[in-house]
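User: I'll paste a sequence; please echo it back and then give the predicted structure.

Assistant: Echoing your sequence first, then the prediction.
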Amino acid sequence: MAERNGRQLPRRWVLSAATLSLAGVATAAYGATRGHHGDGSSAGSAPASPAPKTPAVDRITPAANRIRAYVQRYDGHLAVAALDRQGTTTVTAGAGRFETASIVKVNILAALLLGQEPPGKALSANTKRLAEDMIMSSDNDAAVALWQRIGGSRGLTAANRTLGLRETKPNSHWGLTTTTAADQLRLLAALTAPTGPLTPQDRAYVMGLMKKVIPEQRWGVPAAREPGNPSVYVKNGWDTADSDGGRWIVNSIGRIVEARHDWLVAVLSDHHVSQEEGVRVVEKAATYVLKELRAATAGDGPQPG
């Protein structure tokens, strides 16, 4: 596929390593010292001894270990990553690189919006129609048109430096771009962070399209939502891999907003005998991950005073 030179995007914002390092979660401890008056003087001649500290129960580490064991059963053909934007919970399992198939269309849209000058400039009616078709119904012709507009693989590479992606390698054919679950989580974080590279209007636009994906494509991450929750955003990818004997690649990235959580989830997989099998694996994985993380954070909240 022919490309035009991608222009260098302004580095208005780069995700900090501290925010999106996807490292483990540290547990907190709390305690109090007794035996002091309000003026700071000791009550008695002997110095007061601090009360024993009561460590908070670490439920995240065991949950993360179970998630990693779950993923390991698939021998490198499954990877998951999840982050709670309302807390500090982050888990990744599986470091393999997968072909994106159509989940890269969210990345293409992000690159398109980053290239608007001035930032936040409204898309033309034609471009907006292409973006809607590309995300809501996964239209490939629309993706080809927008891929060319961003400058192909060079344009995506430039955009990904701004988005903070580290492990995504664009291909001259957009669907053969490779990525990791951790990098897809970085992408979702960049597209939802208030201090991220997109304007508030552009963030709302991307999420709005992911919320309006057509019903027959709303599988994957949405399977992990709580009953009755409408605040679900998704983009899926599926294709056969010639390099794997025609077996299926099935991916899902998305967001689930709940009363106490704002989950970002990425599930990547391949080597399936059918698309249906891949969808089952991805949905089971997304559901399992959030089940574990909801249970692990069920007791989170203000500590007793």
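The chain has one domain: 56-296. The longest strand covers residues 247-257.
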